[in-house]
Amino acid sequence: MPKNGLAERITISLCPKCAEEKRWIEMKIPALVFEEKGKMWIIKKCKKHGEVRDLYWGDAQSYKKIKKYHDPGISIENPFIKIDKINCPLNCGLCKEHKSHTCLGNIAITNRCDLSCWYCFYYAKENDPIYEPTLEEIKLMARNMANEKPVGTNAIQITGGEPTLRDDLIEIIGAVKREGIEHIQLNTNGITISKNPQLLKNICKAGSHVMYLSFDGISPETNPKNFWEVPDVIKNCRQTEMGIVLVPTVIGGINDHELGDIVRFAFGHIDVVRGVNFQPVSLVGRMPDKLRKQQRITIPGAIKRIEEQTDGQIGKEDFYTIPCTKAVTDFIEVMKNSRKYRMSTHFACGMATYVFKDGKKLVPITRFFNVDDFFSDLETMTENIKNARSRKIEKTIAVSRLLLSINKYVDESKKPKDLKFGKLLLSAFTSGNYKGLAPLHHKSLFIGLMHFQDPYNWDIDRTHKCVIHYGSPDGRIIPFCTFNVIPELYRDTLQRKHSMAMKEWEKKTGKKMSETQHQRNLTEKQKKEIIKYYAPYKLSKKRIMEPDWEK
User: Fold this and answer.
1) C-alpha pair distances (Å), 328 with each of 72, 97, 102, 334, 337
2) Is 378 helix (H, G, I), strand (E, B) or coil?
3) pLDDT tens-place string over residues 467-507
């Protein structure tokens, strides 16, 4: 550890080079998470490849604050992996050591894509085998995640590759819906949707009403992926019940100067845009230290840029770590007398806030609602019910107290006018399920940040608490940050086993893989109109920003 560092905890991490060389036993190495000069770092040393140091969390003060929201989580009562001695992360599936149920289940239905983005970790390159699980395999994956005990998932993300390339997408969505999955979202780049509004209508009719739309910026330089197509995607969504969550991959030195613009763009389309989920880039693969330091950005770094680029309207004090919801879950469980969805992810995995619009102002929920004191009240009410002689009577009292508590912590002078916040929040509590959040989502913009791991910053403590999992045709349920971080152990091996050669796929389908790639044929006039479409939201100027890594 550096001389001036302050040790926080010891964990297990990975040697990036050992992982790349498939040295599975040797790749697991001890690591130290420590504080130095106001930031949290992770350092480890491999006997063969030497020391690796990386930025873990860009604000030590923030890290200490969010630690208090730690949720111990829950154990899986029916793990797929049943061996006695678990050697994490070599036995993922889920196993008895995992401490969270599946909150969002990913089902990758293809590895084909109509784009080839350089930072993407999941698409078929030339001559790669084609992975497209059958309808029965997809149903099995959804069923396995829904049947987890004590809490099964009720939310599935259909992803890829690019899922809209599957001709049977509508049938897939319907099949997943029939497995009892209430919330089905589609992770897409929107290219096909921009050209085919009827497909979008059919997707909604089949049962998917949320689109996770890749969206990396509001200029062609920051968002070469779908800058030109997004206006048509939004136009088509307005003709349906589809809600959009914009999903920017945030890369230091590439698009981190446009985070405020992205938020403004989202608010400019709040009739269809429900949220923005920023994802700091996962640096998978070998890369020079200089480039890694330049592109590395952590959640606090992204929040700092949002604060700067919204003139402080949305700041770091407005964001809470995802497991802060523990107080809410505990209360609902004791009221309903049953286990409920528990967002028991590691506190360093993600943060979020809700932001409302009041005229031209952006007003985060924390500016008019005392979140900390409200959580404290919930904890007290939960304990009162647990310790009461008559839980039935205490629950009745708790409902009244809940309404009073909500109103007590709302500052009416700072709340957006016409916002009936107490009613919205009470509805979310009394429903006890995902549907209860719908009115809140329709009145506000959810702004979240989720930082998936890579071999440089991988932490076994985070992996044990992962809540975003991939289904597998062989029945396993695999945490995101092993599935994609150790691809040769999980993702790529699984794909090869359940894939067919590209030529075989072409013969079977009568299609050519080369025809998959998206070709743009825009006139100069069309380009000017699209650039004009984004202009009102582009307030940030391209500038050299201090890398998150800098001390």
Assistant:
1) 15, 25, 18, 10, 14
2) helix
3) 999 999 999 999 999 999 999 999 999 999 999 999 999 99
Beta-carbon neighbour count of residue 222 at 10 Å?
A: 21
pLDDT attached to residue 548: 85
* Pair 210, 183: CB distance under 8 Å: yes
Q: What is the mean pLDDT of residues 170-181?
A: 98
Summarize pLDDT for 374-429 with one digit per residue, the tens: 999 999 999 999 988 888 888 888 888 888 888 889 999 999 988 888 878 877 77
Q: What is the mean pLDDT of the chain?
A: 92
The H or E element that residue 174 is part of is helix 169-178
**Strand (E) or helix (H) holding 446:** strand 445-450
Q: How confident is the model over 239-267, as a mean pLDDT?
A: 96
CA distance 211 to 243: 6
Amino acid 168 reads: D
Count of CB atoms within 10 A of residue 330's CB?
21
pLDDT of residue 39: 96
Could you please report the per-residue DSSP string of 250-287? E-TTTTGGGHHHHHHHHHHTTTTEEEEEEEEPP--S--
Q: Would you say domain 100-298+455-544 falls under CATH 3.30.1330.10?
A: no
First-to-last alpha carbon distance for the chain, in angstroms, is 16
pLDDT of residue 1: 62
What single string gives the DSSP state of each residue in 474-495?
A: TS-EEEHHHHTTSTTTTHHHHH
For 46, the token pair is 């491999």
Helices 169-178 and 135-146 meet at what angle, rounded to 10? 30
pTM of the full structure: 0.95
Q: Where are the domains of the chain?
A: 100-298+455-544, 315-450
Q: What is the DSSP string of 294-305?
A: HH---HHHHHHH
Task: Pinpoint the alpha helices (H) of 44-105.
Answer: 60-66
Tell me the two tokens of residue 4. 């001036």
Concatenate the DSSP letters of all residues of 1-56 into one string. --TT-EEEEEEEEE-HHHHHTT-TTTTEEEEEEEEETTEEEEEEEETTTEEEEEEE
Strand 273-280 with 243-247, pairing: parallel
Report pLDDT for 541.
Answer: 66
Give the largest CA-CA distance in the chain: 74
Asked if 269 and 245 count as a contact pair (C-beta separation under 8 A), the reply is no
The token duo for 465 is 């608490």
Distances (CA, A) of 123 to 108, 117, 119, 244, 502: 11, 9, 11, 23, 13
**134 close to 143: Cβ distance less than 8 angstroms:** no
Residues 446/275, Cβ–Cβ less than 8 Å? yes
> In angstroms, rounded to a whole number, what is the distance separating the alpha carbons of residues 121 and 191?
19
Asked if 51 contacts 29 with a C-beta cutoff of 8 angstroms, the reply is no
